[in-house]
Task: structure prediction
Amino acid sequence: MLRLNRIFLILLFVFFAVSSVSQASVLQDYRDARYAYQQLLRAPQKQQYRHHWDKVFTQLQHFVDQHPDHEKAPGAYYLLGQSHEKLYEISRVKKDARAAVDYYQSLARRYPSSSLADDALLFSARLQCEVLGAEQAARNDCQVILQRYPSGDMHKRARELLATLPPSTTPVPVKVTTSQPVVSPGPHVVSAIRHWQDADHTRLVLDLDGIPVYRVNTLPPSQKDNTSARLYIDLFKTNRVPTLSSNQKIGGTLVKSIRVGETEERTRIVFDLAQLTRYKVITLAGPPRIVIDLANHVGATLKEDVPQLETSTDAVKGDSGSDQISQVLQRVPADETPQIHLPDVAAKTHGKLRIVVDAGHGGKDPGAIGPGKLYEKDVVLKLAKTLAQRLESSFHCEVLLTRDRDIYIPLLERTAYANEVDADLFISIHANASVNKKAYGIETFYLNFSKTDKAMAVAARENGMSLQEVGDLELILFDMMANSKINESSRLAAEIQSSLVGQLSRKYSNVKDLGVRQGPFHVLLGATMPSVLVEVAFISHSREAKRLNSRTYRERSAEAIVHGVRQYLQSQNLLAKRASDS
Result:
Protein backbone atom coordinates (compact mmCIF):
# COMPACT_ATOMS: atom_id res chain seq x y z
CA MET A 1 0.00 0.00 0.00
CA LEU A 2 2.81 2.40 0.89
CA ARG A 3 4.47 1.61 -2.41
CA LEU A 4 1.27 2.38 -4.30
CA ASN A 5 0.99 5.71 -2.52
CA ARG A 6 4.53 6.61 -3.51
CA ILE A 7 3.84 5.67 -7.12
CA PHE A 8 0.70 7.78 -7.06
CA LEU A 9 2.57 10.79 -5.66
CA ILE A 10 5.31 10.40 -8.25
CA LEU A 11 2.75 10.24 -11.07
CA LEU A 12 0.96 13.27 -9.64
CA PHE A 13 4.22 15.22 -9.48
CA VAL A 14 5.09 14.26 -13.06
CA PHE A 15 1.63 15.31 -14.20
CA PHE A 16 1.88 18.78 -12.66
CA ALA A 17 5.47 19.20 -13.84
CA VAL A 18 4.52 18.32 -17.41
CA SER A 19 1.44 20.55 -17.18
CA SER A 20 3.55 23.49 -15.94
CA VAL A 21 6.10 23.07 -18.71
CA SER A 22 3.31 22.77 -21.25
CA GLN A 23 1.66 26.00 -20.08
CA ALA A 24 4.98 27.85 -20.23
CA SER A 25 5.54 26.52 -23.76
CA VAL A 26 2.08 27.68 -24.89
CA LEU A 27 2.65 31.16 -23.44
CA GLN A 28 6.00 31.34 -25.24
CA ASP A 29 4.25 30.44 -28.51
CA TYR A 30 1.99 33.45 -28.05
CA ARG A 31 4.89 35.73 -27.18
CA ASP A 32 6.81 34.55 -30.23
CA ALA A 33 3.83 35.26 -32.48
CA ARG A 34 3.29 38.69 -30.93
CA TYR A 35 6.98 39.48 -31.24
CA ALA A 36 6.96 38.55 -34.95
CA TYR A 37 4.08 41.00 -35.45
CA GLN A 38 5.82 43.76 -33.52
CA GLN A 39 9.06 43.26 -35.47
CA LEU A 40 7.19 43.55 -38.76
CA LEU A 41 5.67 46.85 -37.64
CA ARG A 42 9.20 48.15 -37.14
CA ALA A 43 10.24 47.18 -40.68
CA PRO A 44 8.40 49.42 -43.21
CA GLN A 45 10.18 47.86 -46.18
CA LYS A 46 9.14 44.33 -45.23
CA GLN A 47 5.57 45.49 -44.84
CA GLN A 48 5.40 46.05 -48.59
CA TYR A 49 5.60 42.29 -49.27
CA ARG A 50 2.66 40.03 -48.50
CA HIS A 51 4.75 36.96 -47.65
CA HIS A 52 6.11 38.71 -44.57
CA TRP A 53 2.55 39.30 -43.36
CA ASP A 54 1.64 35.70 -44.17
CA LYS A 55 4.32 34.47 -41.77
CA VAL A 56 2.78 36.52 -38.96
CA PHE A 57 -0.73 35.30 -39.86
CA THR A 58 0.46 31.69 -39.79
CA GLN A 59 1.96 31.97 -36.31
CA LEU A 60 -1.08 33.69 -34.84
CA GLN A 61 -3.54 31.37 -36.59
CA HIS A 62 -1.66 28.32 -35.35
CA PHE A 63 -1.96 29.62 -31.79
CA VAL A 64 -5.74 30.19 -31.91
CA ASP A 65 -6.29 26.84 -33.63
CA GLN A 66 -4.25 24.90 -31.09
CA HIS A 67 -5.18 26.84 -27.94
CA PRO A 68 -8.66 28.35 -28.32
CA ASP A 69 -9.27 28.21 -24.56
CA HIS A 70 -5.99 29.84 -23.53
CA GLU A 71 -6.15 33.24 -21.79
CA LYS A 72 -4.09 34.75 -24.62
CA ALA A 73 -6.42 33.52 -27.38
CA PRO A 74 -8.43 36.80 -27.45
CA GLY A 75 -5.17 38.68 -27.80
CA ALA A 76 -4.14 36.47 -30.72
CA TYR A 77 -7.48 37.09 -32.48
CA TYR A 78 -7.05 40.80 -31.84
CA LEU A 79 -3.58 40.79 -33.39
CA LEU A 80 -4.90 38.84 -36.38
CA GLY A 81 -7.49 41.54 -36.91
CA GLN A 82 -4.95 44.32 -36.43
CA SER A 83 -2.39 42.77 -38.76
CA HIS A 84 -4.94 42.20 -41.57
CA GLU A 85 -6.21 45.77 -41.12
CA LYS A 86 -2.68 47.16 -41.36
CA LEU A 87 -2.06 45.03 -44.44
CA TYR A 88 -5.19 46.52 -46.02
CA GLU A 89 -3.84 50.03 -45.36
CA ILE A 90 -0.91 49.08 -47.58
CA SER A 91 -2.53 46.79 -50.14
CA ARG A 92 -5.95 48.45 -50.42
CA VAL A 93 -7.30 45.00 -51.27
CA LYS A 94 -10.76 44.65 -49.73
CA LYS A 95 -10.32 40.97 -48.94
CA ASP A 96 -7.72 42.01 -46.36
CA ALA A 97 -10.23 44.35 -44.74
CA ARG A 98 -12.88 41.60 -44.78
CA ALA A 99 -10.41 39.21 -43.13
CA ALA A 100 -9.76 41.79 -40.41
CA VAL A 101 -13.51 42.12 -39.81
CA ASP A 102 -13.87 38.32 -39.60
CA TYR A 103 -11.19 38.08 -36.91
CA TYR A 104 -12.62 41.00 -34.95
CA GLN A 105 -16.06 39.40 -35.09
CA SER A 106 -14.63 36.04 -34.02
CA LEU A 107 -13.03 37.65 -30.98
CA ALA A 108 -16.26 39.35 -29.90
CA ARG A 109 -18.34 36.21 -30.52
CA ARG A 110 -16.00 33.69 -28.88
CA TYR A 111 -14.79 35.84 -25.97
CA PRO A 112 -17.56 38.35 -25.14
CA SER A 113 -16.20 38.97 -21.63
CA SER A 114 -12.69 39.84 -22.87
CA SER A 115 -11.55 43.44 -22.39
CA LEU A 116 -10.68 43.42 -26.10
CA ALA A 117 -14.20 42.50 -27.28
CA ASP A 118 -15.57 46.06 -27.51
CA ASP A 119 -12.34 47.28 -29.17
CA ALA A 120 -12.73 44.54 -31.79
CA LEU A 121 -16.36 45.46 -32.43
CA LEU A 122 -15.51 49.13 -32.91
CA PHE A 123 -12.69 48.34 -35.36
CA SER A 124 -15.04 46.00 -37.20
CA ALA A 125 -17.70 48.72 -37.39
CA ARG A 126 -15.25 51.26 -38.78
CA LEU A 127 -14.00 48.93 -41.49
CA GLN A 128 -17.51 47.92 -42.50
CA CYS A 129 -18.62 51.54 -42.64
CA GLU A 130 -15.57 53.18 -44.23
CA VAL A 131 -14.19 50.38 -46.43
CA LEU A 132 -16.79 47.70 -47.11
CA GLY A 133 -19.86 49.93 -47.34
CA ALA A 134 -21.79 47.69 -44.94
CA GLU A 135 -23.53 50.41 -42.93
CA GLN A 136 -26.13 48.13 -41.39
CA ALA A 137 -23.44 45.75 -40.11
CA ALA A 138 -21.50 48.73 -38.73
CA ARG A 139 -24.66 49.93 -37.00
CA ASN A 140 -25.16 46.49 -35.46
CA ASP A 141 -21.63 46.48 -34.03
CA CYS A 142 -22.09 49.94 -32.50
CA GLN A 143 -25.42 48.93 -30.96
CA VAL A 144 -23.83 45.85 -29.38
CA ILE A 145 -21.08 48.00 -27.84
CA LEU A 146 -23.60 50.47 -26.42
CA GLN A 147 -25.81 47.77 -24.94
CA ARG A 148 -23.32 45.12 -23.89
CA TYR A 149 -20.44 47.31 -22.71
CA PRO A 150 -21.98 50.48 -21.22
CA SER A 151 -18.92 51.18 -19.07
CA GLY A 152 -16.35 50.09 -21.64
CA ASP A 153 -13.74 52.39 -23.12
CA MET A 154 -15.24 52.17 -26.65
CA HIS A 155 -18.67 53.45 -25.58
CA LYS A 156 -18.08 57.06 -26.61
CA ARG A 157 -16.48 56.17 -29.93
CA ALA A 158 -19.29 53.77 -30.80
CA ARG A 159 -21.88 56.46 -30.15
CA GLU A 160 -19.93 58.97 -32.24
CA LEU A 161 -19.64 56.51 -35.13
CA LEU A 162 -23.31 55.58 -34.86
CA ALA A 163 -24.26 59.25 -35.10
CA THR A 164 -22.54 59.50 -38.50
CA LEU A 165 -24.52 56.57 -39.95
CA PRO A 166 -27.89 57.06 -41.66
CA PRO A 167 -30.86 55.86 -39.58
CA SER A 168 -31.81 52.23 -39.89
CA THR A 169 -34.99 51.34 -41.78
CA THR A 170 -35.46 48.15 -39.74
CA PRO A 171 -35.13 47.58 -36.02
CA VAL A 172 -31.84 46.04 -34.93
CA PRO A 173 -32.16 43.36 -32.26
CA VAL A 174 -29.41 43.61 -29.67
CA LYS A 175 -28.78 40.95 -27.07
CA VAL A 176 -27.96 42.54 -23.71
CA THR A 177 -25.50 40.71 -21.49
CA THR A 178 -23.65 41.62 -18.35
CA SER A 179 -20.82 44.10 -18.75
CA GLN A 180 -17.21 43.03 -18.97
CA PRO A 181 -15.25 42.28 -15.80
CA VAL A 182 -13.85 45.39 -14.09
CA VAL A 183 -10.29 45.89 -12.97
CA SER A 184 -11.09 45.60 -9.29
CA PRO A 185 -14.42 46.14 -7.47
CA GLY A 186 -12.89 47.97 -4.52
CA PRO A 187 -13.29 49.64 -2.14
CA HIS A 188 -10.07 51.57 -2.72
CA VAL A 189 -8.24 54.61 -1.35
CA VAL A 190 -6.44 57.39 -3.21
CA SER A 191 -3.60 58.53 -0.96
CA ALA A 192 -1.82 61.21 -3.00
CA ILE A 193 -1.90 63.21 -6.21
CA ARG A 194 1.55 64.01 -7.53
CA HIS A 195 2.40 66.27 -10.46
CA TRP A 196 5.35 67.63 -12.36
CA GLN A 197 6.04 69.11 -15.76
CA ASP A 198 8.69 69.84 -18.35
CA ALA A 199 8.54 72.24 -21.27
CA ASP A 200 6.17 70.05 -23.30
CA HIS A 201 4.32 67.75 -20.93
CA THR A 202 2.57 67.57 -17.58
CA ARG A 203 2.35 64.30 -15.66
CA LEU A 204 -0.28 63.62 -13.02
CA VAL A 205 0.02 60.53 -10.83
CA LEU A 206 -2.72 59.17 -8.56
CA ASP A 207 -1.33 56.90 -5.85
CA LEU A 208 -3.80 54.15 -4.90
CA ASP A 209 -3.97 50.92 -2.95
CA GLY A 210 -5.39 49.12 -6.01
CA ILE A 211 -6.74 49.95 -9.45
CA PRO A 212 -10.45 50.85 -9.23
CA VAL A 213 -13.02 51.08 -11.97
CA TYR A 214 -12.57 54.60 -13.30
CA ARG A 215 -13.75 56.95 -16.01
CA VAL A 216 -11.92 59.91 -17.56
CA ASN A 217 -13.74 62.83 -19.17
CA THR A 218 -13.09 66.36 -20.36
CA LEU A 219 -15.14 69.55 -20.44
CA PRO A 220 -14.30 72.40 -22.83
CA PRO A 221 -14.20 76.02 -21.65
CA SER A 222 -17.66 77.49 -21.12
CA GLN A 223 -18.56 79.83 -23.97
CA LYS A 224 -20.96 81.61 -21.62
CA ASP A 225 -18.44 82.86 -19.09
CA ASN A 226 -15.14 81.64 -20.60
CA THR A 227 -14.24 79.55 -17.57
CA SER A 228 -11.36 77.13 -17.78
CA ALA A 229 -11.38 73.73 -19.42
CA ARG A 230 -11.41 70.68 -17.18
CA LEU A 231 -10.23 67.11 -17.23
CA TYR A 232 -11.68 64.92 -14.52
CA ILE A 233 -11.52 61.32 -13.40
CA ASP A 234 -14.16 59.43 -11.46
CA LEU A 235 -12.77 56.67 -9.23
CA PHE A 236 -15.65 54.38 -8.35
CA LYS A 237 -15.87 52.82 -4.88
CA THR A 238 -12.85 54.89 -3.89
CA ASN A 239 -12.28 57.33 -1.03
CA ARG A 240 -9.52 59.81 -0.36
CA VAL A 241 -7.36 59.81 2.74
CA PRO A 242 -8.11 62.69 5.15
CA THR A 243 -4.70 64.25 4.50
CA LEU A 244 -5.38 64.64 0.76
CA SER A 245 -6.29 68.26 0.12
CA SER A 246 -9.63 68.97 -1.54
CA ASN A 247 -8.20 71.99 -3.34
CA GLN A 248 -4.60 72.37 -4.49
CA LYS A 249 -3.34 75.44 -6.33
CA ILE A 250 -0.84 74.31 -8.94
CA GLY A 251 -0.36 77.32 -11.17
CA GLY A 252 1.47 75.33 -13.82
CA THR A 253 1.65 75.97 -17.54
CA LEU A 254 -1.35 73.72 -18.23
CA VAL A 255 -2.82 72.49 -14.93
CA LYS A 256 -3.86 75.39 -12.70
CA SER A 257 -5.47 73.56 -9.80
CA ILE A 258 -6.65 70.17 -8.57
CA ARG A 259 -9.98 69.76 -6.76
CA VAL A 260 -11.40 66.66 -5.09
CA GLY A 261 -14.95 65.74 -4.14
CA GLU A 262 -16.35 62.45 -2.89
CA THR A 263 -19.48 60.52 -2.06
CA GLU A 264 -20.02 57.00 -0.80
CA GLU A 265 -19.95 55.76 -4.39
CA ARG A 266 -16.94 57.51 -5.88
CA THR A 267 -14.27 60.16 -5.69
CA ARG A 268 -14.04 62.76 -8.44
CA ILE A 269 -10.75 64.54 -9.10
CA VAL A 270 -10.96 67.63 -11.30
CA PHE A 271 -7.94 69.16 -13.02
CA ASP A 272 -8.54 72.78 -14.06
CA LEU A 273 -6.68 73.40 -17.32
CA ALA A 274 -5.55 76.42 -19.26
CA GLN A 275 -6.77 74.65 -22.41
CA LEU A 276 -7.85 71.23 -23.62
CA THR A 277 -4.96 69.21 -25.05
CA ARG A 278 -4.22 65.63 -25.96
CA TYR A 279 -3.69 63.23 -23.12
CA LYS A 280 -3.08 59.56 -22.38
CA VAL A 281 -3.97 57.44 -19.37
CA ILE A 282 -1.93 54.49 -18.13
CA THR A 283 -2.61 52.15 -15.23
CA LEU A 284 0.44 50.67 -13.53
CA ALA A 285 0.90 48.17 -10.73
CA GLY A 286 3.64 47.76 -8.11
CA PRO A 287 2.64 50.15 -6.55
CA PRO A 288 -0.86 50.71 -8.02
CA ARG A 289 -1.30 54.09 -9.67
CA ILE A 290 -3.01 55.86 -12.54
CA VAL A 291 -0.79 58.09 -14.67
CA ILE A 292 -2.21 60.89 -16.82
CA ASP A 293 0.16 62.57 -19.28
CA LEU A 294 -0.94 65.80 -20.96
CA ALA A 295 0.63 67.79 -23.78
CA ASN A 296 1.26 71.33 -22.57
CA HIS A 297 0.70 72.78 -26.03
CA VAL A 298 -0.52 71.76 -29.44
CA GLY A 299 2.92 71.00 -30.84
CA ALA A 300 3.97 68.66 -28.06
CA THR A 301 4.41 65.05 -29.16
CA LEU A 302 2.16 62.77 -27.19
CA LYS A 303 0.98 59.47 -28.61
CA GLU A 304 -2.59 58.87 -27.53
CA ASP A 305 -3.40 55.64 -25.75
CA VAL A 306 -6.95 54.41 -25.41
CA PRO A 307 -8.03 55.55 -21.94
CA GLN A 308 -11.21 54.58 -20.12
CA LEU A 309 -13.55 57.12 -21.70
CA GLU A 310 -17.14 58.22 -21.41
CA THR A 311 -18.71 61.32 -22.91
CA SER A 312 -18.45 64.37 -20.71
CA THR A 313 -22.01 65.50 -21.47
CA ASP A 314 -23.60 62.25 -20.32
CA ALA A 315 -21.43 62.19 -17.24
CA VAL A 316 -22.64 65.64 -16.23
CA LYS A 317 -26.28 64.79 -16.93
CA GLY A 318 -25.96 61.79 -14.68
CA ASP A 319 -24.91 63.93 -11.72
CA SER A 320 -27.34 65.46 -9.31
CA GLY A 321 -27.09 69.23 -9.07
CA SER A 322 -26.91 69.06 -5.28
CA ASP A 323 -24.31 66.31 -5.35
CA GLN A 324 -20.88 67.25 -4.04
CA ILE A 325 -19.46 65.31 -6.99
CA SER A 326 -21.31 67.56 -9.42
CA GLN A 327 -20.40 70.69 -7.48
CA VAL A 328 -16.69 70.02 -7.52
CA LEU A 329 -16.90 69.76 -11.30
CA GLN A 330 -19.01 72.86 -11.82
CA ARG A 331 -17.06 75.15 -9.48
CA VAL A 332 -14.28 76.91 -11.32
CA PRO A 333 -11.62 78.78 -9.32
CA ALA A 334 -10.85 82.37 -10.16
CA ASP A 335 -7.84 82.97 -12.35
CA GLU A 336 -4.60 83.56 -10.50
CA THR A 337 -1.14 84.52 -11.56
CA PRO A 338 0.57 81.31 -12.71
CA GLN A 339 3.30 80.04 -10.44
CA ILE A 340 5.26 77.42 -12.32
CA HIS A 341 6.87 74.75 -10.13
CA LEU A 342 10.10 73.44 -11.60
CA PRO A 343 13.07 71.62 -10.06
CA ASP A 344 15.51 73.77 -8.14
CA VAL A 345 18.07 73.69 -10.93
CA ALA A 346 19.77 76.59 -12.65
CA ALA A 347 18.83 77.20 -16.27
CA LYS A 348 20.80 75.02 -18.62
CA THR A 349 23.76 76.78 -20.16
CA HIS A 350 23.55 76.77 -23.95
CA GLY A 351 25.70 74.03 -25.39
CA LYS A 352 26.66 72.51 -22.02
CA LEU A 353 26.25 68.76 -21.61
CA ARG A 354 23.88 67.70 -18.83
CA ILE A 355 23.77 64.10 -17.56
CA VAL A 356 21.43 62.63 -14.95
CA VAL A 357 22.84 59.72 -12.92
CA ASP A 358 20.29 57.60 -11.13
CA ALA A 359 21.22 55.45 -8.12
CA GLY A 360 18.74 52.56 -8.13
CA HIS A 361 16.30 51.82 -5.31
CA GLY A 362 16.67 53.72 -2.00
CA GLY A 363 14.77 54.37 1.21
CA LYS A 364 12.10 51.76 1.85
CA ASP A 365 13.23 49.91 -1.29
CA PRO A 366 16.59 48.27 -0.46
CA GLY A 367 16.95 46.52 -3.80
CA ALA A 368 18.79 43.20 -3.75
CA ILE A 369 20.57 42.11 -0.58
CA GLY A 370 23.95 40.39 -0.77
CA PRO A 371 26.12 38.49 1.72
CA GLY A 372 26.59 40.21 5.06
CA LYS A 373 23.41 42.28 4.51
CA LEU A 374 25.06 44.31 1.78
CA TYR A 375 22.25 46.46 0.37
CA GLU A 376 22.10 47.28 -3.34
CA LYS A 377 20.71 50.74 -2.56
CA ASP A 378 23.87 51.60 -0.59
CA VAL A 379 26.56 50.40 -3.00
CA VAL A 380 24.90 51.89 -6.09
CA LEU A 381 24.54 55.26 -4.34
CA LYS A 382 28.28 55.28 -3.63
CA LEU A 383 29.01 54.30 -7.22
CA ALA A 384 26.61 56.91 -8.59
CA LYS A 385 28.30 59.68 -6.59
CA THR A 386 31.72 58.58 -7.82
CA LEU A 387 30.45 58.40 -11.40
CA ALA A 388 29.00 61.91 -11.14
CA GLN A 389 32.37 63.30 -10.02
CA ARG A 390 34.23 61.51 -12.82
CA LEU A 391 31.77 62.68 -15.48
CA GLU A 392 32.01 66.29 -14.33
CA SER A 393 35.81 66.30 -14.32
CA SER A 394 36.09 64.45 -17.63
CA PHE A 395 33.61 66.45 -19.73
CA HIS A 396 33.27 69.70 -17.74
CA CYS A 397 29.57 69.00 -17.87
CA GLU A 398 26.71 69.32 -15.42
CA VAL A 399 25.77 66.10 -13.63
CA LEU A 400 22.61 65.76 -11.54
CA LEU A 401 21.76 62.88 -9.22
CA THR A 402 18.19 61.66 -8.84
CA ARG A 403 19.07 60.96 -5.21
CA ASP A 404 22.15 61.87 -3.18
CA ARG A 405 21.06 60.13 0.03
CA ASP A 406 19.04 57.14 1.22
CA ILE A 407 15.54 58.18 0.12
CA TYR A 408 12.79 56.46 -1.84
CA ILE A 409 11.92 57.88 -5.26
CA PRO A 410 9.22 56.23 -7.45
CA LEU A 411 10.63 54.81 -10.66
CA LEU A 412 8.63 56.95 -13.08
CA GLU A 413 9.70 60.15 -11.29
CA ARG A 414 13.34 59.48 -12.10
CA THR A 415 13.08 59.83 -15.87
CA ALA A 416 10.48 62.55 -15.39
CA TYR A 417 13.12 64.51 -13.48
CA ALA A 418 15.62 63.93 -16.29
CA ASN A 419 13.04 65.25 -18.76
CA GLU A 420 12.32 68.29 -16.60
CA VAL A 421 15.96 69.35 -16.41
CA ASP A 422 16.46 68.74 -20.15
CA ALA A 423 19.17 66.11 -19.67
CA ASP A 424 21.20 64.81 -22.60
CA LEU A 425 21.81 61.35 -21.10
CA PHE A 426 20.23 59.25 -18.35
CA ILE A 427 22.28 56.50 -16.66
CA SER A 428 20.68 54.30 -13.99
CA ILE A 429 23.10 52.30 -11.80
CA HIS A 430 22.10 48.93 -10.34
CA ALA A 431 23.54 45.70 -8.95
CA ASN A 432 22.18 42.45 -10.35
CA ALA A 433 20.90 39.47 -8.35
CA SER A 434 19.85 35.90 -8.98
CA VAL A 435 18.52 32.94 -7.02
CA ASN A 436 21.43 31.09 -8.62
CA LYS A 437 24.27 32.19 -6.34
CA LYS A 438 26.80 31.18 -9.01
CA ALA A 439 25.50 33.71 -11.52
CA TYR A 440 27.86 36.63 -12.14
CA GLY A 441 28.79 39.16 -14.79
CA ILE A 442 28.05 42.60 -16.21
CA GLU A 443 25.13 43.57 -18.43
CA THR A 444 23.60 46.79 -19.68
CA PHE A 445 19.97 47.33 -20.65
CA TYR A 446 18.01 49.80 -22.70
CA LEU A 447 14.24 50.23 -23.02
CA ASN A 448 12.63 47.91 -25.53
CA PHE A 449 10.67 44.70 -25.80
CA SER A 450 12.43 41.89 -23.99
CA LYS A 451 13.71 39.03 -26.10
CA THR A 452 14.69 36.56 -23.40
CA ASP A 453 13.22 35.18 -20.21
CA LYS A 454 16.34 36.33 -18.34
CA ALA A 455 15.80 39.92 -19.42
CA MET A 456 12.15 39.65 -18.36
CA ALA A 457 13.25 38.34 -14.97
CA VAL A 458 15.66 41.26 -14.44
CA ALA A 459 12.95 43.73 -15.48
CA ALA A 460 10.49 42.11 -13.06
CA ARG A 461 12.95 42.43 -10.17
CA GLU A 462 13.93 46.03 -10.93
CA ASN A 463 10.30 47.05 -11.48
CA GLY A 464 9.03 45.24 -8.41
CA MET A 465 6.55 43.39 -10.60
CA SER A 466 5.52 39.86 -11.48
CA LEU A 467 6.47 38.39 -14.85
CA GLN A 468 2.84 38.67 -15.93
CA GLU A 469 2.79 42.37 -15.05
CA VAL A 470 5.99 42.87 -17.05
CA GLY A 471 4.24 41.27 -20.01
CA ASP A 472 1.42 43.76 -19.59
CA LEU A 473 3.96 46.59 -19.44
CA GLU A 474 5.29 45.48 -22.82
CA LEU A 475 1.88 46.22 -24.30
CA ILE A 476 2.11 49.74 -22.89
CA LEU A 477 5.59 50.11 -24.36
CA PHE A 478 4.24 49.00 -27.71
CA ASP A 479 2.16 52.19 -27.82
CA MET A 480 4.75 54.50 -26.26
CA MET A 481 8.05 53.72 -27.92
CA ALA A 482 7.50 55.72 -31.10
CA ASN A 483 9.07 58.77 -29.44
CA SER A 484 11.75 56.94 -27.45
CA LYS A 485 15.39 57.20 -28.47
CA ILE A 486 15.78 53.44 -28.88
CA ASN A 487 18.65 53.47 -31.37
CA GLU A 488 20.69 56.04 -29.46
CA SER A 489 20.08 54.19 -26.20
CA SER A 490 21.23 50.89 -27.70
CA ARG A 491 24.46 52.51 -28.91
CA LEU A 492 25.09 54.11 -25.52
CA ALA A 493 24.45 50.76 -23.82
CA ALA A 494 26.86 49.01 -26.19
CA GLU A 495 29.66 51.50 -25.52
CA ILE A 496 29.23 51.35 -21.74
CA GLN A 497 29.03 47.55 -21.70
CA SER A 498 32.13 47.17 -23.90
CA SER A 499 34.10 49.62 -21.80
CA LEU A 500 33.12 48.05 -18.46
CA VAL A 501 34.03 44.53 -19.57
CA GLY A 502 37.23 45.61 -21.34
CA GLN A 503 38.66 47.84 -18.62
CA LEU A 504 37.67 45.73 -15.62
CA SER A 505 39.06 42.58 -17.27
CA ARG A 506 42.51 44.16 -17.15
CA LYS A 507 42.33 44.47 -13.36
CA TYR A 508 40.14 41.52 -12.33
CA SER A 509 39.78 37.87 -13.25
CA ASN A 510 36.47 36.20 -14.11
CA VAL A 511 34.76 39.24 -15.57
CA LYS A 512 31.88 37.83 -17.59
CA ASP A 513 30.32 39.77 -20.45
CA LEU A 514 26.55 39.18 -20.33
CA GLY A 515 26.05 41.63 -23.17
CA VAL A 516 23.59 44.37 -24.01
CA ARG A 517 19.96 43.47 -23.54
CA GLN A 518 16.54 44.95 -24.03
CA GLY A 519 13.87 45.12 -21.36
CA PRO A 520 10.70 46.93 -20.25
CA PHE A 521 12.07 48.89 -17.29
CA HIS A 522 9.88 51.38 -15.43
CA VAL A 523 12.90 53.49 -14.55
CA LEU A 524 13.61 54.08 -18.26
CA LEU A 525 9.99 54.58 -19.29
CA GLY A 526 9.22 58.03 -20.65
CA ALA A 527 12.80 59.26 -21.02
CA THR A 528 13.20 61.68 -23.93
CA MET A 529 16.98 61.28 -24.05
CA PRO A 530 19.27 58.24 -24.57
CA SER A 531 18.92 56.21 -21.38
CA VAL A 532 20.40 52.97 -20.06
CA LEU A 533 20.33 50.77 -16.98
CA VAL A 534 23.72 49.35 -15.97
CA GLU A 535 23.97 46.20 -13.82
CA VAL A 536 27.61 46.53 -12.73
CA ALA A 537 27.87 43.17 -10.92
CA PHE A 538 25.86 40.48 -9.11
CA ILE A 539 25.43 41.40 -5.45
CA SER A 540 24.14 37.86 -4.89
CA HIS A 541 27.55 36.39 -5.93
CA SER A 542 30.07 36.30 -3.08
CA ARG A 543 33.08 37.39 -5.17
CA GLU A 544 31.25 40.20 -6.94
CA ALA A 545 29.62 41.37 -3.71
CA LYS A 546 33.09 41.89 -2.23
CA ARG A 547 34.06 43.88 -5.31
CA LEU A 548 30.96 46.06 -5.08
CA ASN A 549 31.81 46.77 -1.46
CA SER A 550 35.29 47.85 -2.54
CA ARG A 551 35.95 51.54 -3.18
CA THR A 552 38.60 50.64 -5.75
CA TYR A 553 36.19 48.51 -7.79
CA ARG A 554 33.56 51.24 -7.74
CA GLU A 555 36.08 53.84 -8.89
CA ARG A 556 37.29 51.61 -11.70
CA SER A 557 33.71 50.89 -12.73
CA ALA A 558 32.97 54.61 -12.77
CA GLU A 559 36.03 55.30 -14.94
CA ALA A 560 34.95 52.55 -17.33
CA ILE A 561 31.44 53.99 -17.64
CA VAL A 562 32.92 57.43 -18.30
CA HIS A 563 35.06 55.93 -21.06
CA GLY A 564 31.98 54.32 -22.57
CA VAL A 565 30.10 57.61 -22.46
CA ARG A 566 33.06 59.31 -24.15
CA GLN A 567 33.05 56.71 -26.94
CA TYR A 568 29.33 57.24 -27.46
CA LEU A 569 29.59 61.03 -27.53
CA GLN A 570 32.45 60.89 -30.00
CA SER A 571 30.61 58.43 -32.23
CA GLN A 572 27.68 60.87 -32.33
CA ASN A 573 30.05 63.81 -32.80
CA LEU A 574 28.48 65.40 -29.74
CA LEU A 575 31.69 66.37 -28.00
CA ALA A 576 32.87 68.38 -30.98
CA LYS A 577 29.46 69.97 -31.35
CA ARG A 578 29.33 70.94 -27.68
CA ALA A 579 32.80 72.46 -27.91
CA SER A 580 31.82 74.54 -30.94
CA ASP A 581 28.58 75.68 -29.27
CA SER A 582 30.29 76.80 -26.05
Observations:
- The radius of gyration is 26 Å.
- The chain has a mean pLDDT of 76.
